[in-house]
């Protein structure tokens, strides 16, 4: 087995394993948006970058409320979640010019949710060949842009700059 070292990941893994706190609740409650990679705050939901993205620009839309079940989501939160998902698609298309996009939720641990107790919508830009041999065989993703740069570009897009 080949090993690729990513020592920067240790900070996240060691923090996550020490706490049972919901990462979405923690991040949304803090006012350090750049540090927490929060791109935009709505009334009921917020938009943030995925700390371990599948592709450059992989973001998520999550409600402030800690809700696991889609059917328990209040109507106004549900409506805004979809509005922010649409805005995210628009901004990702404008900034990164992807050939396609994925948008979706994994509801429940067995469905693939990494944070099963707090629902969230993933939005990922996609390009032909972005799932190449490194991803499929080497189980490794190569990201061409650092998260702070992605945050800068997409925050500006959400602000209308």
From TrEMBL:
> Where does the source fall among the domains of life?
Bacteria
- Keyword Nucleotide-binding on entry: yes
Tell me the active site. Answer: 120
Residues the record lists as binding substrate? 50, 112-115, 122
Question: Organism, per UniProt?
Answer: Paludibaculum fermentans
Motif range (Histidine triad motif): 118-122
State any single GO MF term: catalytic activity
Q: What is this protein called?
A: HIT domain-containing protein
Keyword presence, Nucleotide-binding: yes
């Amino acid at each position: 087995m080949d090993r690729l070292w990513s020592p920067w990941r240790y900070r996240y893994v060691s923090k996550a394993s020490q706490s049972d706190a919901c990462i979405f609740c923690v991040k949304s409650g803090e006012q350090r948006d750049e540090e927490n990679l929060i791109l935009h705050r709505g009334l009921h939901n917020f938009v943030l970058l995925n700390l371990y993205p599948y592709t450059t620009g992989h973001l998520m839309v999550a409600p402030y409320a800690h809700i696991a079940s889609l059917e328990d989501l209040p109507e106004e939160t549900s409506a805004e979640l979809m509005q922010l998902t649409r805005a995210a698609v628009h901004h990702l298309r404008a900034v990164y010019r992807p050939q396609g996009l994925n948008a979706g939720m994994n509801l429940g641990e067995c469905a693939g949710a990494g944070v099963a107790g707090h629902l969230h919508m993933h939005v990922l830009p996609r390009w032909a060949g972005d799932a190449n041999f490194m991803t499929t065989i080497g189980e490794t993703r190569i990201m061409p842009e650092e998260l702070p740069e992605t945050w800068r570009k997409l925050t500006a897009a959400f602000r209308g700059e």
